Amino acid sequence: MMVDPKSAGRWACAAALAAILIQGRAKADDPVAPRTLPPISERALAVHAAGMLFDGHNDYPWLIRTENDLGLTRLDFAGRINVGQTDIPRLRKGGLKAQFWSVYIPSEQPNPTKTVVEQIDFVNRLVEKYPADLALALTADDVAKAVQAGKIASLIGIEGGVAIDDSFAELRAFYKLGARYMTLTHNKTLAWADAANGEQLHGGLTPFGERVVAEMNRLGMLVDISHVSAETMADVLRVARAPVIASHSSAFALCPVPRNVPDAILTGLKANGGVVMVNFYSAFLVPDSNAKAREARDAIRKAHPDKAERAKALADWYKNEPGAIRGTVATVVDHIDHIAKVAGIDHVGIGSDFDGINSWPVGLDDVSDYPRITEELLRRGYSEPDVHKVLGGNALRALREAEVAAAKLQASTPPQVDDVKHVKKDEDD
């Protein structure tokens, strides 16, 4: 999830994009149609299809919640829908084999547990409605079986530790409901963990936060360090006994924003066995992207006082921006390159954040465009086995190793127990 599109509103240009670009690609003869990109090579398509693309983060469930279609009656996911960046036809074109669907929860959401249960229920109902294309996956073996059957393995990841309401019992309940990772925070610091964009209150994890990590390891739920502070990341790596993931983050060295992963953490992830799954949000790829975009939009607003003309000019700017502000496919692979050099090729993956971002790289407009990443990796000399690691092999390996660690921990470690205050009954009761 980007900096805060869901709880604080979107950029001004995003309103124009919602009406023109996000609502579906325009026709080829439309004056605001996306630019024509070169075709993907046959070799790249073949290598891409032979691998297992496993995306760490897609916010489609929350997007549909905001579109008021939780009943799955208005939008047909099996057809080319005109909302957002994800549907089955585009997933198939993009060669996606496995997806962690984010069940996001805003930090300020009233009754967060109820909301997350509703989000989990949505993913389950989505899978049940489209059984020819989707299959629920709870384990690494489930992922492999779904892919072998020609279906898209669908996993659930909680975005925001506020969901557990400081309760180990709720954490275990979410695991039983199918959650296989949890992002420890969103943008707000919790009572037990500092967020990257929140107040720095604890210097990382509190002792309770360390217990949360320990219980997630014992369950086999991946600990996700996207959105947490660098100090929290370091604390997680210090106490974790299973691979850690960043489900949708990029490299701090290339784009120094708090949401990205510093090199020291990348080095720690190599020792831990974890994976950083690169985010496609422009502001996490291109330094000062937000400031540059704001400057360009302000100039357009001044030049076009008429609202309709301004909307068209904003959309024209967005589609014609060469990538200096939005980034390109090459920018995404720059981040993959850096993580691979610092942490190793076994510790980098893809975490697009599609349907949770309002600005994305040129050439990666929606889930149909993943093969362009494979094309760029091959152009840079990555071997086919290494391309397959980046696409999803590393993510699947981390999930499997977390399961192995959980089995060992369950044999030797009791569950974490909530501290319950008991009220002494009156003698007359």
UniProtKB/TrEMBL annotation:
<dbReference type="Pfam" id="PF01244">
    <property type="entry name" value="Peptidase_M19"/>
</dbReference>
<keyword id="KW-0224">Dipeptidase</keyword>
<keyword id="KW-0732">Signal</keyword>
<dbReference type="InterPro" id="IPR008257">
    <property type="entry name" value="Pept_M19"/>
</dbReference>
<keyword id="KW-0378">Hydrolase</keyword>
<feature type="region of interest" description="Disordered">
    <location>
        <begin position="407"/>
        <end position="429"/>
    </location>
</feature>
<feature type="signal peptide">
    <location>
        <begin position="1"/>
        <end position="28"/>
    </location>
</feature>
<keyword id="KW-0645">Protease</keyword>
<dbReference type="InterPro" id="IPR032466">
    <property type="entry name" value="Metal_Hydrolase"/>
</dbReference>
<protein>
    <submittedName>
        <fullName>Dipeptidase</fullName>
        <ecNumber>3.4.13.19</ecNumber>
    </submittedName>
</protein>
<feature type="compositionally biased region" description="Basic and acidic residues">
    <location>
        <begin position="418"/>
        <end position="429"/>
    </location>
</feature>
<dbReference type="GO" id="GO:0016805">
    <property type="term" value="F:dipeptidase activity"/>
</dbReference>
